[in-house]
Amino acid sequence: MLPAWVPVDACALPTVEQPVRVAEFDALFAESFASVDQRTATSARFVLTGGADLAQRAQVLSDRETGCCSFFTFTITPADGDSVVMDVTVPSERAEVLAALVRRAHEARQGGTGARTA
């Protein structure tokens, strides 16, 4: 099942590639998600923890996502230790997409998305 953050009318990623992108986010969240603070309906701060390549991995993935879903704004900031802050904003008409991404992160951490299956 594709998450709500892949709206057909706003995503330029070919349909066949969408499950791969979903799996990449699932894997990032399953391996690295520590917490999220959904500050407003259109803004959330994810804290990720992991290895030395985490900031680069998160940046590459978020850049690719912005390339197909240009309504997203991601800001990746290395934090203390092995933590990375990923700030995500969307326009008000895409608030439900951000809410779905937040839910997906929680589910991936709990193993509920099938993130580790191929």
Automatic annotation (TrEMBL):
Report the superkingdom from the record: Bacteria
Q: What is this protein called?
A: Arsenate reductase
Organism for this UniProt entry: Nocardioides aquiterrae
